[in-house]
């Protein structure tokens, strides 16, 4: 025994073994809510940091909706519309930034991730998939808000749009729940688009102008008629834009579809519905995907 | 994917330009139309353009209390419908470059195949013309049925419409090829070049409002954009030249506008090949020809 010890000396840095077999200090692993929280910020990180590393992104992503907004503003100018309608168009451009973010950076994202090979990494990581979706939403909101408020400020300055806020707490509450419902909807759509496979791209394309129309982005939704406006109210954008318009433009209650307080209640309901829907649809899709072996399959 | 019978034709097989053109057009059509069931594709082809037209209609109605019989409405509606074709072709070619490079990852194969990549891009543009034409026709038919657009088919100036549209399409292909060529050089935000150009050109084209409402320093740009003349000529041909026009070009007769359109179209299309060669060289120099960024 002593001969063997001489020929194969123990590693000089090996710690003494006492009790259980453990070579290093115990690593603290996040679980439960802590894991969810960390998973969420890990997914949000590239979106938050990426925006700072590529300023060109900000220019391109802001300029595009701004140009589209200009076109609608000039239609109002050409038809001799009152000044507040120009404000409606500028606000529509701001809302566009959020909706495009929902379509292209939320709904289509899991499909892109599958295509690029990231989805399989999400699935095998210990973090819940819902936290990944929530991280996408948090990062995406910051991206979209940067664009949206840039459009609002530039458009308002260029076309001399003035605002008069009637009820600030209500305005903030409507904005918060519009975003909560909208990003909840985006999270839910991410699962649906993932199931749609290569049709996701076209679905996103298809949901641009029809949603601009249905939600009354560039005109009061009331103009669509009671039936269409009621159906459109299932979209958080419809309720949010309508309420915000009434709260930031002076004497515009006659153009409103629903009282802002009613819109707020409906938006709270939609937020709960869409976030819960996102959780369950993702679980369902994961189960189907695992059973049929299509979760990371890239052909479709 | 099946091949088109034309691709097996002896003349096409031996001519790199024809081969590129036919292959691009056929592949483009397959990509655009073969991804879904025909019913879903039909909804897709109809939903966007009709919704886009209806946004303008509702905006117009809100301000004018539904004065859709006014000449201004027909001009705005037709301008918007015809511009669908422009956005399809101009944006479509630069998207073809992005798709081939980033999505399908076949840029290397396309550039090393025995065909002209420039002609191939032109073919991809031709496929977008087909899709855009379907959407435009549907939108105009929708306008005829829903808003009684004053188009009298017997009174349409077909020669003017066909000649102006032929040169309009040539100009669109030229602009699309220039944007596609520039896209080859870009490592980031490459999708913006097509989308941004379409949005910017929309403002200076006089499609849905006269150029006169634009700030004075922006207005002249519209006169260097061939689509401005095509839209004006196509609307005059469809509605009749007696129909009141946007004031911007009202002082010019059809011949003058047609000459301007032809001159600009030929210049842009000719220039597109030079810009393509230059961009191709730079993309090779910078190693961006088959760059996959997943951006």
Structural class based on helices, strands and sheet pairing of chain B: mainly alpha
Task: State the distance separating the first and last CA atoms of chain B.
Answer: 28 Å
Question: Using DSSP, what is the number of strands of chain A?
Answer: 0
From the N-terminal CA to the C-terminal CA of chain A, the straight-line distance is 63 Å
Mean pLDDT of chain B: 87
Low-confidence stretches of chain B: none
On the 0 to 100 scale, the average pLDDT of chain A is 83
Total strands of chain B: the figure is 0
Note the total helix count of chain B. 11
Principal-axes geometry of chain A comes out as elongated
Radius of gyration of chain A using CA atoms only: 25 Å
Strand residue percentage of chain B: under 5%
Largest pleated sheet of chain B = none
Largest inter-chain interface?
Answer: A-B, 41 and 38 residues
Structural topology:
The complex is a heterodimer of chains A (300) and B (295).
Chain A: H1 2-7, H2 32-53, H3 55-78, H4 83-107, H5 109-116, H6 119-124, H7 129-158, H8 168-196, H9 199-206, H10 209-214, H11 226-232, H12 236-248, H13 260-292
Helix pairs in contact in A: 2-7, 3-4, 3-7, 4-7, 4-8, 5-8, 7-8, 8-12, 8-13, 12-13
Chain B: H1 10-14, H2 16-33, H3 38-64, H4 71-103, H5 107-112, H6 117-147, H7 158-183, H8 191-204, H9 219-223, H10 226-239, H11 254-285
Helix pairs in contact in B: 2-6, 3-4, 3-6, 4-6, 4-7, 4-8, 4-10, 6-7, 7-8, 7-10, 7-11, 10-11
Q: What does the model show?
A:
The complex is a heterodimer of chains A (300) and B (295). Chain A is built from 13 helices and no strands. With 300 residues, chain A is an all-alpha fold. Chain A is elongated, with a radius of gyration of 25 Å. In chain A, 43% of the residues are buried. By secondary structure, chain B is mostly helical. Chain B contains eleven helices and no strands. At the A-B interface, helix 3, helix 5, helix 9 and helix 10 of A face helix 3, helix 4 and helix 8 of B.
């Amino acid at each position: 025994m002593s001969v063997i010890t001489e020929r194969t000396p123990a590693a000089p840095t090996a710690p003494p073994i006492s009790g259980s077999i453990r070579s290093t200090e115990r690593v603290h692993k996040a679980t439960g809510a802590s894991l969810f929280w960390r998973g969420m910020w890990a997914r949000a990180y590239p979106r938050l940091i990426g925006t700072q590393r590529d300023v060109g992104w900000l220019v391109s992503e802001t300029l595009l909706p701004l140009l589209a907004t200009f076109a609608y503003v000039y239609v109002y100018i050409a038809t001799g519309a009152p000044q507040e309608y120009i404000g409606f168009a500028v606000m529509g451009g701001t809302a566009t930034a959020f909706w495009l973010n929902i379509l292209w950076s939320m709904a289509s994202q899991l499909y892109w991730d599958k295509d690029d090979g990231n989805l399989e990494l999400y699935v095998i990581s210990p973090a819940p998939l819902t936290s990944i979706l929530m991280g996408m939403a948090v990062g995406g909101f910051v991206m979209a808000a940067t664009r949206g408020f840039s459009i609002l400020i530039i458009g308002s300055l260029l076309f001399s749009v003035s605002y008069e806020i009637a009820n600030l707490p209500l305005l903030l509450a409507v904005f918060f729940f519009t975003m909560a419902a909208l990003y909840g909807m985006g999270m839910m759509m991410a699962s649906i688009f993932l199931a749609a496979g290569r049709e996701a791209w076209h679905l996103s394309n298809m949901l641009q102008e029809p949603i601009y129309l249905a939600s009354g982005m560039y005109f009061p939704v009331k103009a669509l008629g009671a039936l269409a406006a009621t159906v459109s109210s299932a979209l958080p954008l419809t309720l949010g834009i309508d309420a915000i318009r009434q709260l930031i433009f002076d004497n515009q209650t006659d153009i409103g579809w629903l009282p802002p307080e009613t819109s707020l209640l409906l938006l709270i309901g939609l937020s709960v519905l869409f976030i819960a829907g996102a959780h369950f649809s993702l679980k369902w899709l994961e189960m189907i995907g695992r059973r049929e072996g299509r979760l990371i399959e890239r052909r479709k | 994917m099946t091949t088109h019978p034309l691709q097996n034709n002896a003349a096409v097989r031996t001519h790199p330009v024809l081969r590129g053109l036919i292959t691009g057009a056929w592949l483009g059509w397959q990509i655009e139309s073969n991804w879904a069931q025909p019913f879903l594709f039909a909804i897709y082809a109809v939903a966007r353009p009709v919704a886009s037209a209806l946004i303008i209609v509702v905006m117009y109605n809100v301000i004018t209390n539904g004065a859709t019989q006014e000449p201004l409405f027909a001009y705005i509606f037709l301008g918007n419908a015809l511009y669908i074709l422009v956005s399809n072709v101009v944006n479509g070619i630069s998207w073809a470059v992005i798709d081939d490079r980033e999505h399908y990852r076949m840029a290397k194969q396309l550039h090393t195949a025995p065909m002209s990549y420039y002609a191939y891009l032109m073919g991809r543009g031709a496929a977008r013309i087909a899709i855009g034409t379907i959407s435009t026709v549907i939108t105009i038919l929708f306008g005829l049925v829903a808003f009684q657009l004053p188009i009298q088919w017997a009174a349409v100036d077909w020669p003017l419409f066909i000649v102006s549209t032929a040169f309009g399409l040539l100009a669109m292909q030229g602009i699309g090829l220039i944007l596609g060529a520039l896209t080859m050089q870009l490592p980031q935000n490459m999708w913006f070049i097509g989308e941004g150009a379409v949005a910017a050109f929309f403002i200076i084209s006089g499609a849905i409002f006269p150029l006169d409402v634009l700030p004075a320093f922006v207005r002249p740009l519209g006169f260097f954009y061939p689509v401005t003349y095509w839209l004006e000529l196509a609307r005059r041909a469809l509605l009749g030249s007696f129909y009141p026009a946007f004031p911007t070009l009202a002082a010019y007769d059809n011949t003058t506008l047609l000459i301007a359109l032809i001159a600009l179209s030929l210049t842009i299309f000719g220039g597109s090949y030079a810009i393509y060669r230059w961009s191709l060289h730079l993309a090779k120099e910078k190693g961006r020809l088959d760059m996959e960024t997943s951006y």
